[in-house]
Design brief:
The protein has about 400 residues and is α/β, with parallel strands linked by helices. The chain has 17 helices and eleven strands. The protein has a three-stranded parallel β-sheet. The protein has a two-stranded antiparallel ribbon with strand order 4-7. A two-stranded antiparallel ribbon has the order 5-6. Helix 1 crosses helix 7, helix 4 crosses helix 5 (about 175-185) and helix 15 packs across helix 17. The longest helix has 16 residues, at about 25-40. The N and C termini lie far apart (about 70 Å).
Length: about 400
C-alpha cells in the first residue's frame, strides 16, 4: 500500500455548520486529530459553510466548543465562505440559441463538472485497493443557479491550496472521492492520500444524524460522561482493537491504527459508554481533574484517590466531599456499640493503617465481625451503607468529627 505518512502530514475535518456535532461526526474528527498527533502533523478545521441559507455562526461556535471538550484544538481554522473559489469552465453541449432561450425564460444556469467515463482507482489506506466507475455517475453540480457553491469544488480547491496530505473520512464519501479525484487532476494537482473508515450507528443499527440530540456531543457532555471515554469508544469500536479506558488523547493516538478498522458498521452503545466513562474516571490522576473538582469546591489529592473508584460521574464526588467535610447525619442502630467504638478510637494523626487497628480493637471488645462490625461503623461515620473504603475516608474525616458522629451528632 501507499506510504501513509508525509514528512509533516496535514489533515482536515470539514463539518457543515448547520447543526450540532453528534457522535458520528466525532469519529472522523478524532481519527484525523489522532493521526496528526501520532505522526507529528497538523489538524485543519475547515467549515463547509458554502450553503449560506443553512450555515449559522452559532453552529460554528458550537462545533469549536464541542471539539474543544474532546480535547481537539485545531492548528488552523478557515471558512470556505471566505474563500469562494472560481471555476470558469463553460457548458459544453448547449448551443448559443439554447442558452438564449433559457435566458429568455428567466432560467439561470448551474454549473456541472464534466466527468470522464472511466474507472478511478486509488490505494485507500483503510480499505485497501479501491475503485469507482465514473461512467455510472451523474456529472456533479459545482455551482448552484444562485452562484453559491456546493461542497465538491471548494473541498478540492481548499485541499490543494492548504496542502492537505491525508483525507480521512467516512465510507459514505467513497463515491465523492472518485469525483473529486477527477477534479484534482483537472486542476493539475496531485491527489492526497485517502482513507475511508466505517460509520458509527446506534446500538440497534440505526444511522446517526443531527436529529438524535441525545447522541450530540453537547448532549453527552451535559449527561456527565467523560470526554476521554467518548473519544476512546468513538474510535476503537468497530476495529480489531479492544475498547479500553485511556488517560489522555496522546495515549489513544498511540493505540488507534486506521488499518485495524473493520469494514462492518461500528455500533455505538450508550450503556457501553457509561461503563467506559466510569472506568476512565477511576484511573484519572488528580492533576487531570483538579480544575473540574475545584469548580465543585473540592480540593485535595488524597480525597480524590479515596473516592474516584466509587464514582460513575465526576460530580458525584460532591456527595463524598460533604461526607468528609460535614455536616453528615450519622445512623446509629446500636448506641452501646458506637460508644465502645468511640472509646477505642486512636489518637491522631490518622493514616492508612488506623482503620484496621481500630476495627481490630472494636472486634476484640465487642465480638462483632464481618458486616456486623463494619456496617454500624460506616453508617455512623458517613450516614450511608455504601461508599469508598473507610481506611481512606477516616483520615479525611478526622478524629473530632468521627467522635461526634459516633455520639449520634451531625458533624
Amino acid at each position: 500500500m501507499t506510504s501513509l505518512v508525509a514528512t509533516s502530514p496535514l489533515v482536515r475535518f470539514a463539518p457543515s455548520p448547520t447543526g450540532y456535532l453528534h457522535i458520528g461526526n466525532a469519529r472522523p474528527a478524532l481519527f484525523n486529530w489522532l493521526f496528526a498527533r501520532r505522526h507529528g502533523g497538523r489538524f485543519l478545521l475547515r467549515y463547509d459553510d458554502t450553503d449560506v441559507a443553512r450555515s449559522k455562526p452559532e453552529y460554528a461556535d458550537a462545533i469549536a466548543e464541542d471539539l474543544g471538550w474532546l480535547g481537539i484544538v485545531p492548528d488552523l481554522v478557515i471558512r470556505q465562505s471566505e474563500r469562494l473559489p472560481i471555476y470558469d469552465r463553460a457548458a459544453l453541449k448547449l448551443t448559443a440559441e439554447q442558452k438564449a432561450a433559457f435566458e429568455a425564460e428567466g432560467r439561470k444556469p448551474h454549473w456541472r463538472f464534466l466527468l470522464e467515463a472511466r474507472e478511478v482507482t486509488w490505494d485507500d489506506f483503510v480499505r485497501g485497493a479501491s475503485h469507482v466507475d465514473c461512467a455510472s455517475l451523474s456529472d456533479p453540480v459545482l455551482v448552484r443557479e444562485d452562484g453559491s457553491y456546493l461542497y465538491t469544488l471548494p473541498s478540492v480547491v481548499d485541499d490543494i491550496e492548504t496542502g492537505v496530505t491525508h483525507v480521512i473520512r467516512g465510507e459514505d464519501h467513497v463515491t465523492n472521492t472518485a469525483v473529486q479525484a477527477q477534479i484534482f487532476e483537472a486542476l493539475g494537482a496531485s491527489l492526497p492520500v485517502f482513507g475511508h473508515h466505517n460509520l458509527l450507528t446506534t446500538a440497534s443499527g440505526e444511522g446517526l444524524s443531527k436529529r438524535l440530540g441525545h447522541l450530540s456531543l453537547r448532549g453527552l457532555r451535559d449527561s456527565g460522561v467523560e470526554a476521554l471515554a467518548v473519544a476512546a469508544l468513538a474510535t476503537m469500536v468497530g476495529t480489531s482493537d479492544a475498547v479500553r479506558p485511556v488517560s489522555s488523547l496522546d495515549e489513544l493516538a498511540g493505540l488507534v491504527e486506521l488499518s485495524h478498522v473493520s469494514r462492518a458498521p461500528a455500533k455505538f452503545d450508550e450503556n457501553e459508554l457509561a461503563v467506559l466513562s466510569a472506568r476512565t474516571l477511576h484511573q484519572l490522576p488528580f492533576a487531570a481533574v483538579a480544575g473540574r473538582l475545584a469548580a465543585l469546591g473540592i480540593d485535595g489529592e488524597a480525597f480524590w484517590l479515596a473516592v474516584r473508584g466509587n464514582l460513575a460521574k465526576l460530580d458525584e464526588a460532591g456527595q463524598w466531599w460533604q461526607v468528609v467535610q460535614g455536616p453528615a447525619t450519622p445512623v446509629i442502630a446500636d448506641q452501646p456499640f458506637a460508644a465502645t467504638a468511640a472509646g477505642l478510637l486512636p489518637q491522631e494523626p490518622f493514616d492508612a493503617t488506623t482503620w484496621k487497628s481500630w476495627t481490630q480493637a472494636v472486634a476484640a471488645a465487642t465480638g462483632a465481625k464481618g458486616k456486623a462490625l463494619f456496617m454500624p461503623l460506616r453508617q455512623a461515620l458517613t450516614g450511608l451503607d455504601h461508599g469508598p473504603e473507610l481506611a481512606a475516608l477516616l483520615p479525611l474525616i478526622g478524629r473530632e468529627k468521627a467522635l461526634q458522629r459516633l455520639a449520634g451528632e451531625s458533624a
